[in-house]
Amino acid sequence: MFQTHKRLRSTILSAVVLASLAAATSAQAYTGDWTVSGEFERTTTPSFSGGFNPNDVDTVTASFDNRGKQVSLHLGFFEAPSRGAIYISLGTGRVDGTCAADTIDIAIMAQDRVVSHEQTETVRYWVPASSETRWTSSSYGPGFQWMYIGWDRYRLQHKWVRYTPGRWESSTETHTVTGPDPLAHDRVAQLELAGIDGALTHTVTIDNAASQMDWVFGSPLLNNITANCIEIRVPGRSAPYVLSPPAVPVAVPPPTAPADPAVGVTTEDEITLDEITTTAKRRGSKIQLRMTGDAARIQIRIRKSSKTLDFKTSITIKNQAETVRYVLVRFTDGTDWSSWDRVAVK
Q1: What's this model's pTM, rounded to 2 decimal places?
Q2: Which of 165, 289, 308, 315 is the most exposed place for a label (fewest CB within 10 A)?
């Protein structure tokens, strides 16, 4: 199934669901509280861009206060991340060590802060050529640069003209400029809870050089929710960061004696559902699903709608909103259904 794990640097994973106050480890822990936290090693995963990804996650801590009905999230980065979208999903770990991150979805978006300020600048402008005429009763000129034209017999005065050539001049102007704040931007986080309509929103101002983010969401509907694993998707990485409880060892049954050929036991071909992998890509308002492997039928679920189709290696889902980020799929060989696979839409 589509699931990629990152190597952790001294990974600290704690998923604690307290059964009673008597089992609390501190005075601040209450029934139903839990915390998922860990840190990640920074690696130069092969990409088209050399060096480290600026969006690499350093640490994460997600916690739930069941008494206060609050979900808190802290993200730490090695450097200030880009303004691309960041997606956080929490859920419960599977026995195979993967994460069914379908309980809580948090989308973190960046948006410019619009600010206004006074700006003073020097403006140059062209003054066209001009001329000026004067008359005097005496033959003495009115001053420097005046040229004598002659006696004006209609005015009975002496005529003088001064020519001024065209020239560039400058002046200082002050005006109000409105645009994005070059020093800080807003981050808007929206939390969606499985089975609940709408979203909780939290907006904070983040400095361009900040490498830490903290979020708090509160609602009476955040009651007795459970999670012990987390997926983090950041721009520039094709696979999520994953924190999940370790896999539970499965007991291997003892080998059985081969069937006696004389008995004539017949077996039918079986489809290995676990070998099917699925990817989902957005193409405008469509989502393109591609599968490798084989099955008899496929069931697709997007939010509250689902549909069962004959299995194909490529399926197009039309008219899907931009906010759809995950598709749930499962397969059947005609007898049994596989578990739901949560596929991120890229």
Answers
A1: 0.60
A2: 165
